[in-house]
Design a protein that fits this description.
The chain contains 12 helices and 11 strands. It is of the alpha/beta class. It has 2 domains: about 40-135 and about 260-325, D-Maltodextrin-Binding Protein, domain 2, CATH 3.40.190; about 135-255, Periplasmic binding protein-like II (D-Maltodextrin-Binding Protein, domain 2, 3-Layer(aba) Sandwich), CATH 3.40.190. Strand 6, helix 7 (about 170-185) and strand 7 form a beta-alpha-beta unit.
Length: about 325
């Protein structure tokens, strides 16, 4: 009988120990969430410093840091067509202290690469920053085309003879171009670059025939007459180029695609922390100084709730992977 009591006592002790341990773990987790953030936030930008994504990341996340009175460290991790930095964020601890600021590549690279290192919809959660990157279709001034339709006619007569300066396979620019090529039923020779600046230089020196370029990067050269705009790849005309039609007005509504940038965290991040981050980002986007910085870079944005961000992420993943599937882009 005493042995039974002893066994029961040991069992009860183990149960109480496990229960106490579980309570302590839950308590620690709850404390960590309520105390968030209590150390620096690391923001990964999977592109070179000084680009459009870097501008967006700094404008918004540094304002969040000021509002939280917490240090925000921007970490440029370029390489592998943004795969290196994105995979690092996807594999980070789900504690809300590692953020990723990136564009459509986060959604499409797992389709383009056999082992990108993450699954877009399983490993990442978009927590804020619906900022749209406006772009414009350009040709060299010597090109005998003043409209997209005229350029398409030339390209159809010379399949594969005209080239396209591509700043990165699967990038927002590449995806915009592929949608246009599919809608217009034209074939251009793809020439790969490691970013927009060098590709634009080659367009200005007539080494390239056609490019789609971020508006802020293109505007000075449009004003100088070094390149000729054919259409803006937006759903409405932009104030800086009031006489340039949208791609839909130019006759190819199917090619309308305005890429957006998001801030992501590891998908397992607790909901309470995710909600706090989303609230802080939306507040930062309404800050007059942040709005000024984004306006200077011609990158409009607006606050969005988590449900809308999740829906946008899912819809673009489906739409863009379809573009890749029909474009003939090969797995890397």
């Amino acid at each position: 009988m005493s042995r039974v009591k002893t066994v029961l006592g040991v069992a009860m002790g183990l149960v109480m120990g496990f229960a106490l341990g579980a309570i302590m773990l839950l308590g620690n987790a709850a404390h960590a969430q309520s105390n968030y953030p209590n150390r620096p936030i690391r923001v990964i930008v999977p592109y070179p410093a000084g680009g459009i994504v870097d501008i967006v990341a700094r404008a918004v996340t540094e304002q969040v840091g000021r509002d939280w009175k917490q240090t925000v460290v921007i970490e440029a991790r370029p390489g592998g067509n943004s795969n290196i930095g994105t995979a690092s964020a996807a594999r980070s601890e789900p504690d809300g202290y590692t953020w990723l600021v990136t564009g459509p590549a986060a959604l499409v690279n797992p389709t383009l690469y056999k082992d990108a290192g993450w699954d877009a919809l399983k490993d990442l959660k978009c927590v804020g920053l619906a900022v749209w990157n406006q772009s414009v279709a350009l040709v060299h001034p010597s090109m005998p085309a003043s409209t997209i339709k005229e350029f398409v006619e030339i390209a159809r007569k010379k399949p594969g003879e005209l080239n396209f300066g591509n700043p990165g396979t699967g990038s927002s620019i590449d995806l915009s171009a592929q949608k246009l090529f599919q809608a217009a039923d034209i074939k251009l020779t793809n020439v790969g670059y490691k970013g927009q600046p060098q590709a634009l230089i080659d367009l200005m020196t007539s080494l390239m025939h056609f490019e789609i370029v971020s508006l802020e990067l293109a505007l000075p050269h449009i004003r100088a007459g070094s390149v000729k705009p054919l259409a803006v790849m937006t759903d409405k005309r932009v104030a800086d180029l009031p006489d340039v039609p949208t791609i839909a007005e130019a006759g190819f509504p199917e090619a309308t695609y305005v890429p957006w940038y998001g801030i992501y965290v590891q998908a397992g991040t607790p909901n309470a922390i995710v909600a706090k981050i989303n609230e802080a980002i939306n507040k930062a986007l309404q800050n007059p100084e942040v709005q000024r910085q984004l306006a200077v870079a011609n990158i409009p944005g607006k606050p969005m709730p988590l449900a809308d961000l999740a829906a946008l992420m899912k819809a673009d993943h489906e739409k863009l992977t379809k573009v890749i599937a029909t474009s003939g882009m090969a797995l890397q």
